[in-house]
User: Fold these one by one.
Assistant:
Number 1:
Amino acid sequence: MSKMSHFNVIEQYEDHKRALFTLLSSILTCFADIKMFEQNQDELTEKLNSLCSYYPFVSLLYLLDANGKQISRNVPSKYFKSPAKIGFGVDRSNRPYYALAMATDHVVVTEPYLSSVRQELCLSTSIKITQADGSVKGVIVLDIDLGAALAFLAGDSRRLYFEPYFKVMYSSIVLGLFIVALTLLCIGGSECFKIFVTMVKPNTTTETPFGVVIYLTLALAIFDLGKTTLEEEVLLYKDILRHSSTRRTITRFISVIIIAVSIEALLMIFKFALNGESEHILQAVWIIIATALLLIALGVYVYLGSKAEAQLLKKTTMH
């Protein structure tokens, strides 16, 4: 379960755009205060950290004057420390969060963009602050870590905390599977060498190579299972709330099993046929039939799962 790629973040953002905008609007409406323009750096930091205790996805705070010039240094939250508190005096009048805020009295939220500070996808929410006489005092801007905000909305923040431990456990299991596959490969190689020796030595009976094929097939199946586990649970990001991710994982695991069982059934047929044990061929045929039924069941699962997800997405879009 790796970190969300930018593609995954954008995809989830499109699904939860309205809810995210509502959340950020309520946060900044309650947080923004004209008194912030009179506070020093330490006071701003303390105020931001108190906000982050409830909303840990807020990464940065800064203040702009009426002309879009930054009048405070960047204030990082306690969860997203920046290497230096910079930004004071920078002209941000050409930035979307300033232009949008100056055009309305409400909270505005930008589209996602790549943060120059943290190199992560983020968005900015801002609000124009006016004085009693109606003149513009400035603009308050909050930078939001988009991936963390989406995890917060989905209630996934606590699972992300334990994710490194999950990765260690899955990596240990995968390592064990790879060791077993390597052991079977070595045994298969040893059996193959014995067959080669019996072929080159005179007056020796040539061994039937079914043992070698069985060892190599098992090694292939176990290696493929370990590879699938490594990709699905360690290297790739998997959104457990999205049905397509779960369906992809189940499909890959069942496919590995189907391939391994099919090969074993064919080997049984060849072995029984060559050894004159035709009465046992029916057992292998039953295994092939069971494999075919498993393949049909997998196809039905994938089809119904995709239709169910399409219906859910349709309902979400309508609401």
Number 2:
Amino acid sequence: MAGRKINPILKMVLEFGPILAFFVGYLKLKGQHFLIAGTDYDGFILVTAGFIPLMVLSTAILWRLTGHLSKMQIATVVLVVIFGGLSVWLNDDRFFKMKPTMIYLLFGGILGAGLLRGKSYLRVVMEEVVPLEHEGWMILTRRVTAFFFGLAVLNEVIWRTMSTEAWVTFKTFGLTAAIFAFFMLQGRVFRDYGIEEQEGDDA
């Protein structure tokens, strides 16, 4: 079910604002340590603790304004709460760093399960935005599935082998740029399998 339309700039702020706030907060607090209730927390954990309610709030506002959230948005905020909460509770940044891996494995697994059944679950999410023929959806879904699994592997490699600052930069800008570039490269699929909207009869 399609939601109500809202200002695209406001929508972008609600979707990407928390991510940018996390990045800025990390830059401000990186390398610092804070003693809270007898426990030492570094800046990353405190920024994560602030990111969780901010993400929940922005998602709730988006739902309030549009009357709709995609399954992807719901899954993302749930995993943010779970893995972010574990990082804060256990004072261990590894859980939050694993979160993108879990998100992309989940999405890739769901799309892959649909492909095994001969269906494109991606079509359910994107059909109103990008109308395609059935074969186009199957091609795009196979590519998106592989892409998600690739992002999951890439996230694991980066957070396990590089610094926290490198991972935060990758999460904030690298993932967004990779997704944008991926869909830009699917232009031929959109062109070859796109369905033009039928204009109403003037008669």
Number 3:
Amino acid sequence: MSRAQDANRSFFPFGNPFRMMSPKGTKISSQLLSVLHAFEANLEERLKKLTPKSKDEILSLSWMTLAMRALCESHNDIKTLITELELPVHDWDEKWIDVYLDISVKLLDLCIAFSSELSRLSHGHLLLQCALHNLGSSSTKQYDRACSSLDGWKQHIGSGNPRIEKCGSILDDLLGSLDLPKVKKSAKGKVLMQAMYGVKVLTVFVCSVFAAAFSGSTKTKLDVSEIYSWAPTFKGLQDLVNEEIRVRFSSGRFTVLNELESVDSSVKELYPVIQVVVDSVQMESLAKIVAELGRSTEKLSQGLDLLTKEVDGFFQVVLTGRDALLSSLRSGATVIHNNIGGNRDAQILS
């Protein structure tokens, strides 16, 4: 896993893209406000669940799984909100469609990168299993093979992943396109944009933490106005996570992920013991370390499997939402832009 070279680099090359919607203009009814407040209350509850009781829970695979699950739920809530607002796609402003499609394709790219890294880490599990198998013998030759497998694991885990290395630029592009479209005449549109704002903040935060955990090279700080009811909870969560990331980056650890660090600690402890095993006392010590490595390896494998399922689930949520929007646009013969985020030439879809 690459070392942090630019851990403090900002993801805001274009300034803060999260600008609060203007309070002026169309008045939002009490009924619409009630819908919005319920949505934001759910968002805040998820942020609270992500706030760990101990900093040791941060950057664990279980925390990352919970964070990805929160993204799935929040993006599904947006779909539900659109239904509650009775705001069909053909009534959407063209700019909203552009923003949604632009963001969704970047999120799909991030999911692909994260899945690629999780697959790479899972592949390292085979090397650990091979090492554990050889450590079950008392043969010096088998110990040598175990050391070779452990060396291979460390080299494999420490190697770079080109797809993960591109996450920083994808997030930069994502942030550059997150300017909230101004809504002048639609109260329902204002509610939708404010709800989407909250989900965007959560999404960028979680994805930036994943990028930091996998690459050791990026993190970000989002400034959210206190006008949002969930802002204090988000700020507390972000400060806690970012501080722990900073501490781990500066400590020189092999990895910032808890489960990987646990395996690495057992591997480091094994090496000197394997070299000098000559009596029953040393054999007993070796057996204990091997057992601990086995437990750490199993926990890592299970954590990777669960997180992979959540990332795949989020990919499907984004993909189905995108497909549903495009299907609605086709059935309504709505004008959208070809080459999202670039060429502004329009195309009729029918």
